[in-house]
Design a protein that fits this description.
The chain has 434 residues and is of the alpha/beta class. It has helices spanning 20-48, 78-84, 102-124, 136-144, 165-172, 214-226, 237-246, 270-279, 300-310, 330-344, 349-363, 389-398, 403-433; strands spanning 52-57, 88-94, 130-132, 148-155, 175-179, 196-197, 202-203, 229-231, 252-253, 282-285, 368-370. β9 (252-253), α8 and β10 (282-285) form a beta-alpha-beta unit. The longest helix is centred in the last third of the chain and has 31 residues, at 403-433. The chain starts with 19 loop residues before the first helix and ends with a helix.
Length: 434
């Protein structure tokens, strides 16, 4: 029997004549005791481990958002991080689809700068006990000092417009994790999710560049030179494979799940998973219901397509269970998300850990992590914000993962990739000085 299938100890009541009611009560008491023991073990692990969420979106203060927690606040706020034993989070300067025009590029850049200012303000507030870290040394020091750490990420080269010159500026401002696409293709790379124009009824082609454009390939080289981490989440499969092949250091997928379990284009194929493992990279699983549901359900495709059509989204998709979360009209979007959510049904930690198990069994525990995508629709039963991070560790323990495994999953693997990127950059600098 594999380690991942190792069962928990089952305590059997053997008293003759014990009533059904007393057996149930005793079983419940045992379960409660076991859960308390596991939670204590999880708390002990988090007390020493350096735990990292590899991707979350940035909430802009006083700007309405449909993705915040029930308290109206960020799902990865410092207080929630501290409660859940989460030490660090990659806060991404992410922008969604915008016109690929000078005005669109300017708007994307302006939004990224607004989000950067929001992260800086978060760290500048002494009440948050939070710092922005720009190296693995700074990350480790923050942990030693008992401070929460923010790592700045970047998502969607639309922010850069049509040249790579902005990459250096972003790096100097603190960005360390670079993802080239969000939804929709840009001048650098193809996205895993193409744009649909409801006004014209047309959709982008599945591939515009055949993966990366020449600009995208130049961007990978520049990010490697600076010592940044390449993030392949939300790239098309072709673009992701090209980044893995081109990058001189291991890559990450900061918030991607397994396509073999949930058949949507946003998730990773087995080929992508294998290539990331062979390169030494890490895949961070997200607690996002729309990328965790069981796509083996024969009725799910029909039902999702029916809801899409009623919402005005009638085009076909390459993957039969493709969802469509970004709808322009707020009322239609809310209705679509509500009805789709009902179709998906309850999804919790078991589904999330099934995706972690899949990665571990396929390429090993050194190549999996957690990236929540909180503040952008993500959240499941048992893990709906950072305050519930300990629940993930409890479930990992239940599945037989060791303390060392959990330390690697919750941040050790990410740190290894970051250090490799730093060392490669340092080596290039030394070589250039000779």
């Amino acid at each position: 029997m594999s380690r991942l299938l190792a069962p928990l100890l089952i305590i059997v009541l053997s008293q003759v004549g014990c009533s059904v009611e007393s057996k149930s009560e005793a079983t419940a008491a045992v379960s409660t005791d076991q859960n308390a023991t596991l939670m204590a073990q999880a708390q002990a692990i988090h007390a020493t481990a350096l735990t990292i969420d590899a991707h979350a979106d940035i909430e802009i203060p006083d700007k309405p958002s449909m993705y915040v927690g029930s308290d109206g606040l960020s799902k990865v706020g410092p207080q929630k991080m501290q409660k859940g034993g989460l030490d660090a989070v990659v806060m991404s300067l992410a922008v969604g689809p915008m016109p690929r025009t000078p005005d669109g590029y300017a708007a994307a850049k302006a939004l990224a700068q607004t989000k950067l200012a929001a992260v800086n303000a978060l760290a500048e507030d002494p009440a948050n006990n939070t710092v922005i870290v720009k190296s693995t040394v700074e990350l480790t020091n923050a942990h030693i000092e008992g401070k929460s750490a923010l790592i700045i990420g970047f998502q969607n080269a639309l922010i850069l417009g049509t040249d790579i010159s902005g990459i250096d500026s972003l790096y100097r401002s603190g960005v360390r994790v670079f993802a080239l696409t969000h939804m929709g293709h840009n001048d650098f790379a193809d996205s895993s999710r193409t744009l649909f124009d409801g006004d014209t009824g047309t959709r982008e082609p599945d591939a515009e560049h055949g993966g990366l454009s020449a600009l995208g390939k130049a961007a990978v080289a520049e990010i490697n030179t600076l010592g940044g981490i390449m993030d392949i989440s939300q790239l098309s499969s072709e673009a992701a494979l090209q980044v893995i092949a081109l990058s001189s250091t291991p890559v990450i997928a900061s918030h991607s799940n397994v396509r073999a379990l949930t058949s949507v284009s946003r998730n990773l194929s087995d080929l992508e998973i294998d290539q990331i493992g062979e390169s030494g990279g890490v895949i961070h699983i997200a607690p996002f219901r729309g990328y965790l549901f069981d796509s083996a359900d024969p009725d799910m495709d029909t039902n999702i397509r029916a809801v899409r059509k009623e919402s005005g989204i009638e085009e076909d998709y390459l993957y039969p269970f493709e969802l469509y979360w970004e709808i322009d009209d707020p009322a239609i979007r809310k209705d679509f998300l509500t009805r789709t959510s009902a179709l998906l049904g309850p999804i919790g930690l078991d589904e999330m850990l099934d995706h972690i198990d899949y990665i571990v069994e396929r390429i090993g525990v050194d190549h999996v992590g957690i990236g929540t995508d909180f503040n952008h629709g993500s959240g499941i039963i048992g893990f709906n914000d950072a305050s519930e991070a300990l629940n993930v560790t409890v479930e990992l323990l239940k599945r037989g993962y060791t303390e060392d495994d959990i330390i690697n999953i919750w941040g050790g693997n990410f740190i290894r990739v970051w250090r490799a990127a730093e060392k490669a950059s340092e080596a290039r600098m030394l070589q250039s000085q000779r």
